[in-house]
Amino acid sequence: MDSIVLIHGFPLDSAMWSEQAACLRGRGFHVLTPNLPGFGDRPALPPERTTMEAFAADIRECIQREAGGRAIVGGFSMGGYVLLALLREAPECVAAALFVDTRADADSYDARKGRYQAIDQIRRDGPAGFFDASLTRMMRKRPDEKIRAAARAMMERQSVEGILAAQTAMTKRRDQTDLLAELTMPVMVLVGAEDAITPPSVALNMQSHMPHAMVVQVVSAGHLAPMEQPAAVSGHMETFLATAKRALEARP
Ligand code: MLT
After folding, report:
1. HSE on the CB side for 150, CA within 13 Å?
2. In terms of pLDDT, which residue wins out, 246 or 82?
3. How far is C-alpha 158 from the chain's CA centre?
4. Whose CA is nearest to atom 6 of ligand 1?
5. 3.40.50.1820, 2.130.10.10, 3.30.429.10, 3.30.420.140: which CATH number matches 3-250?
6. What average pLDDT does this structure show over 238-244?
7. Does residue 62 line the site of ligand 1, with CB under 6 A?
8. Do 97 and 190 touch, CB atoms closer than 8 A?
9. Distance from the Cα of residue 192 to its chain's centroid
10. Helix pair 145-156, 128-138: axis angle to 10 deg
């Protein structure tokens, strides 16, 4: 059976993939949606050991333990940063790569400054204000209130310790753009057409380094496309998985 590992974003957990996981399981895929350390049911790593590379090592262990050492891997936003770190360290684990609402470059000066301000705000006032501001940026302009409430509840389940450690780790992540041109496996880049955090121009820029990649825009979705348009995202993923499978089977 083909295994697919889906890496969640920030400050979320594996439940963000529940619709896609159910759909792909129904199509016969072995779907793994691990929680990263510090999220969902996982204790946080010590802050000084929390890096995108440590998260990637955790995903690599999951692939070795539960998928026979190789899987199709998808990463949403921060999960995409983790996927890139995994591709740099252990590309042999990744049969095909799916980048969802993410980017390959490091934080800009302003993005880093914004994260430090958010860290100060969370330490001072707790995470509620950060969650509200994040949801406003993550969802399309007129969000579906039920989906917003579900995403808010997911954020509230996360530990402040895990949030602070991951937010700090993202400020330190390296620029992975140079890696894109080296990727030879099937790749899809999926982006919400109304994504204000990693907009379609970012997805197209990623594709400019890997012309074999499929790029798909999800209509009526912001950054949180897998939750905002779950059926459309599942459908695009199915198409990619079928194409990737054919391409991989045709290889000598
Ligand atoms: C995410 O959705 O995982 C975040 O937007 C990632 C980030 O803060 O860069």
Report:
1. 17
2. 82
3. 16
4. 78
5. 3.40.50.1820
6. 96
7. no
8. no
9. 13
10. 140
